[in-house]
Amino acid sequence: MKHSDSYSGGVIFGILAFLLAAIIATAMFVLPQYGVWQQSLEGKAELQKAEYTRQVAVLEAQAKLDSAEKLRKFASKRPKASQNPIKSLVPALRITPSI
Predict the structure, then answer these.
(1) How far are the Cα atoms of 90, 91, 92, 98 from residue 95, in angstroms, in the given order?
(2) 57-80 residues labelled b (16+ CB within 10 A) or e (exposed)
(3) For position 1, what pLDDT does the model report?
(4) Distance between the two ends of the chain, CA-based, in angstroms?
């Protein structure tokens, strides 16, 4: 029986050595590709962030432009001092103090 015990021990050792070699070979192949894949995802995330930041900046600039245009239109529609009837009445309503 000793002969078969040593034979099965050698087979188990061989299987374990083969599995260890397979795991190491797989890791040597997969890890570099994982690093490239991870860098690709980081690049895509950076690109999306830059696009979002640019969109926000464009929308903010458009809002400022719209606001400035509305203020300009409002200012052009406002009556000027000479067109304001209340201001023309103010000198006529002044009362001079009498001594």
Answers:
(1) 10, 9, 8, 9
(2) eeeeeeeeeeeeeeeeeeeeeeee
(3) 46
(4) 140
C-alpha–C-alpha distance, residues 71 and 77, integer Å? 10
How far apart are alpha carbons 19 and 41 in whole angstroms?
Answer: 31
Distance CA 84, CA 54 (A): 45
The residue to which tokens 């061989």 are assigned? 14
Cα atoms in the 13 Å half-sphere on the side-chain side of 46 = 6
Find all residues with CB under 8 Å of 88, minimum gap 6, and list them: 82
**C-beta separation of 81 from 87 below 8 A:** yes
Give the mean pLDDT per block of 10 residues along the chain (99 residues).
Answer: 64 94 94 93 97 97 94 79 56 57
